[in-house]
Amino acid sequence: MTVNTIAIIGTGIMGMGIAQIAAQAGIQVLLYDAKSGAAEQGRQSLQSTLEKLTAKGKFTDEQLQDILSNLTVLQELSQIATAEIVVEAIIENLDIKKQLFAQLEGVVTTDTILATNTSSLSVTAIAADCDHQERVAGFHFFNPVPLMKIVEVIPGLSTQQSVINVLSDLAKRMGHLGVVAKDTPGFIVNHGGRAYGTEALKILGEEVTTFENIDQILREGAGFRMGPFELLDLTGIDVSHPVMESIYNQFYHEARYRPHPLTRQMLVGKKLGRKVGAGFYHYENGQKLSAATAQDQSSEALISDAVVTSVWVGADLIEDKNQLVDYLKSQGVAIDDNDKPNPDSLVLLAPYGEDTTNAAIRYQVNPKQAVAIDMLTGLAKHRTLMPSLVTQETFIAQAYALFGKSLDDSEATTQPMVGATLISESIGFVAQRVVAMVINLGCDIAMQGIASPEDIDNAVKLGLGYPYGPISWGDHLGASRILLILERIYGLTGDPRYRPSPWLQRRAKLDVSLFTQQNTY
């Protein structure tokens, strides 16, 4: 099918975003909204945006006029009859969407493709009462549409393959990557994004550290664009929490998607985030207010009191031990090479999926001397330090003095301080838990055949702005290391949310890429 004309039903932010990229691609766009005047208002708003972009040199005046000429406001729904594709971008309400699709079938030809921009509803359910279910599909964009270069193309149970082909080609024509996903709760992106916020909330609920510290560790250490609590505040608890509950319920209370009571309390208490000036953070004029943490205030005292005699290093991976020893030597620190640490040596442990107490017992060292460090992302980024329940203050101070600074003090004037965060004991560190859960969930999505590993990776990276897609991230860090984290956390907690995906287990044990697909017979 050659698509010359598409109709957009619903001219809010999402609808007009889709209209913009279609018009920019030279497609005639018909705009309709049931609310009187809304379609014209949407067009005027888009024109204003395009004029600003033209003033910045993004378009020429001629290009601007061409784009605007592709936008036509309709007064009646019956006027969409000439469109080859209709894209619905109205309220996320199943009954209302089904009513609209019944109306559309009475207007368009039998060849017209009917697409829904739903983010959380079943495409099959939306199409259930249609006379021609085979031409209904999901076409899920992300906000802001012109910048988020990804769209999920979702067949319902009855959708013809030709419809998926047309929508995938249309996505490419509009400058977006179309990824095909099964009609399952959350599709790819909203499904794959469940691990980030829910695991961060669980860590906060265990009082491992503050939400500010969790954001900092995951942003500066793991490389996420935004911390999970910054993201929840930006999206709005009134948007995020219902999605968490919806996916949890649709998967029949699968432990991996378990929401946290805190966001339900915040929803009830109207602490919705940036839009109301208060969520996890407080805001003035839309800007986050930051306050010095107790750890910031005490760090100077910790460092000034520290006298490092020697350090004994225990690490699960030889490469981690070598990196730590090299770093310590570069700081002029003596390495305790004895089989058992000297009583005055700082015991530095680099475990995966454990707290410091369990690691100290496994290494048969005195937990009063022990501080653990997260080596998942190495030393070049923000470091996380975890004393045991009984670690003496003098050893905590030594560890903080050693790692709460840049790799090379001579570079301090040209490079920012790397810094370190002290956390309370946790079965697995902050970054280990969150990153392992993100990767494990991506593997589970692949195992369920919701999309190809490549499409899962691209969709999550582009749709959520993660530093890596979950599949390539697992390969980058090492599948066996991620498996070790999850196996230990699962073994120590018994919580089924941490059980390793069979997709991850097989590939880690065979030492092959997580992109390796199963043979089909």
UniProtKB/TrEMBL annotation:
Pfam families: 3HCDH (PF00725), 3HCDH_N (PF02737). Keywords: Oxidoreductase. Residues 186-283, 428-509 form the 3-hydroxyacyl-CoA dehydrogenase C-terminal domain. InterPro entries: 3-OHacyl-CoA_DH_NAD-bd, 3HC_DH_C, 6-PGluconate_DH-like_C_sf, 6PGD_dom2, NAD(P)-bd_dom_sf. Residues 5-184 form the 3-hydroxyacyl-CoA dehydrogenase NAD binding domain. PANTHER family: 3-HYDROXYACYL-COA DEHYDROGENASE FAMILY PROTEIN, 3-HYDROXYBUTYRYL-COA DEHYDROGENASE. This is 3-hydroxyacyl-CoA dehydrogenase. It comes from Psychrobacter proteolyticus. The lineage of its organism: Bacteria, Pseudomonadati, Pseudomonadota, Gammaproteobacteria, Moraxellales.
